[in-house]
């Protein structure tokens, strides 16, 4: 909620003085505007504290018309700067604001208008921060309530809506649970709207007036299947924070109503995991607090294993994480603190690959790491391989069956030669020295002419051009891979 006129007046450093409107100190101020126009209303939206020095005021100025236009526009108050043009507020203006009930504030000469604007901006930012903090706390409470079932979510939502109510309905509109309990009496009055929403081809929410209040009805379910409805009532239209809270409750209730079907639950968890790992869904930005609170705590790891009944069963009972199984691969996302990779390997006997610890902004990279670690586990017949223990850099990326095979093919002409050890060692020294003959020969302990002869022989055996930097880079990586065999 925007700061009130009284809150601004109570700021000591501004030294503002109220001249009229003591009964309207709770008027919200949405912004500060400065104008010397005799009719600034075309440039106002309403709710502003308007500041002026009276630069264009004269004895002929119609103060009554000026103030009436401001009141009709919904201006929160008028601040008059003293000591710039006028030492005192013109008496005609004092009389006009008293007549029309517009709050009037005297702004002393030492107080610049921009200081008033900054203070209102600060108060607005504080209000917004407090609102977001409250909303996030409420969403956390909703998420915790979801662990106890749908009724607990409805109870928590009803408690968070000051003076409001929450009602969970079956697909046909019958009341399932209400907070407070008497809110169940609203169900008959919503029956027609529930019927209309149920017959829509695409699920949609609805807002309607009910007596002196407002009611919002949202369908619950996933994949277009309506499992029930959530009705929320209040004496006022829901604000943005309240709408966010209702949406979060609807999502949690939809998931809760689907939990009775294990196959559906698996699809939900798997679909969310796929979306997170592909980057299609993120958990940063507005409206994601409830989702982040329901996910494993950071840092997280991605675990990859072969799809098997044991792995799928293990993933189904692991509540602190998301699991998916498809195309022969089992994937799990869990908190690094609980070591899901180690527990899965102990349960299935491996092979299992585990990514490095990361945040939710690096999940696609973590998936690639887990898959690489799984390949290493298969190659080395290991139950568990962690990506952090594998070589890094480009060599680490090449440490796959495909990379090893490519390295062997590149060096095959030299390996087949009867002097293979000497030729491979000479090529490595030559590349390491960037083609400097003396340095390369010294590292080998041979004469530079001997090295020249060997490199000439290598050029004859290899199909590529040794002067091509791309080819030299491939040969260097192949030599480094050969050292690992």
UniProtKB/TrEMBL annotation:
This is PucR family transcriptional regulator. Gene3D superfamilies: PucR C-terminal helix-turn-helix domain (1.10.10.2840). Residues 423-480 form the PucR C-terminal helix-turn-helix domain. The keyword Coiled coil applies. It comes from the Bacteria. Residues 360-387 form a coiled coil. InterPro entries: CdaR-like_regulators, PucR_C-HTH_dom, PucR_C-HTH_sf, PucR_dom.
């Amino acid at each position: 909620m925007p700061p009130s006129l009284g809150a601004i007046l109570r700021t000591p450093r501004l030294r503002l003085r109220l001249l009229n409107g003591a009964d309207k100190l709770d008027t919200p101020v949405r912004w500060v505007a400065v104008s010397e126009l005799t009719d600034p209303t075309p440039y106002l939206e309403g709710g502003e504290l308007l500041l002026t020095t009276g630069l264009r005021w004269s004895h002929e100025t119609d103060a009554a018309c000026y103030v009436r236009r401001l009141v009709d526009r919904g201006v929160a108050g008028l601040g008059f700067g003293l000591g710039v043009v006028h030492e005192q507020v013109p008496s005609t203006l004092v009389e006009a604001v008293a007549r029309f009930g517009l709050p009037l504030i005297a702004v002393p000469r030492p107080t610049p208008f921009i200081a008033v604007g900054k203070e209102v901006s600060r108060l607005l930012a504080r209000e917004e921060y407090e609102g977001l903090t409250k909303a996030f706390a409420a969403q956390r409470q909703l998420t915790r309530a979801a662990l106890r079932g749908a009724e607990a979510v409805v109870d928590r939502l009803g408690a968070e809506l000051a003076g409001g109510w929450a009602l969970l309905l079956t697909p046909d509109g019958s009341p399932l649970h209400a907070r407070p309990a008497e809110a169940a009496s609203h169900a008959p009055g919503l029956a027609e709207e529930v019927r209309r929403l149920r017959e829509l081809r695409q699920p949609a929410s609805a807002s309607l007036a009910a007596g002196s209040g407002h009611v919002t009805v949202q369908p619950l379910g996933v994949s277009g299947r309506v499992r029930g409805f959530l009705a929320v009532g209040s004496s006022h239209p829901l604000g943005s924070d309240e709408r966010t809270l209702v949406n979060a409750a609807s999502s949690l209730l939809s998931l809760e109503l689907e939990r009775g079907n294990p196959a559906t639950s698996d699809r939900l968890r798997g679909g969310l995991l796929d979306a997170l790992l592909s980057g299609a869904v993120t958990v940063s930005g507005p409206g994601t607090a409830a989702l982040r609170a329901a996910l494993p705590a950071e840092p997280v790891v991605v675990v990859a294993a072969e799809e098997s009944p044991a792995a799928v069963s293990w993933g189904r009972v692991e509540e602190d994480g998301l699991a998916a199984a498809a195309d022969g691969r089992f994937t799990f996302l869990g908190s690094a603190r609980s070591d899901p990779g180690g527990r899965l390997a102990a349960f299935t006997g491996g092979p299992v690959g585990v990514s490095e610890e990361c945040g939710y902004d690096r999940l696609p990279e973590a998936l690639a790491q887990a898959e690489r670690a799984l390949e290493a586990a298969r190659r080395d017949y290991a139950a568990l391989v962690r990506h952090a223990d594998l070589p890094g850099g480009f060599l680490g990326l090449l440490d796959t069956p495909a990379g090893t095979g490519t390295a062997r093919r590149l060096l095959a002409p030299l390996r087949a030669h009867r002097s293979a050890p000497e030729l491979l060692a000479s090529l490595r020294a030559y590349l390491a020295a960037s083609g400097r003959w003396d340095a390369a020969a010294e590292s080998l302990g041979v004469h530079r002419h001997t090295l020249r002869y060997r490199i000439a022989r290598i050029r004859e055996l290899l199909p590529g051009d040794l002067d091509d930097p791309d080819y030299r880079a491939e040969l260097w990586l192949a030599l480094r891979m050969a050292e690992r065999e």
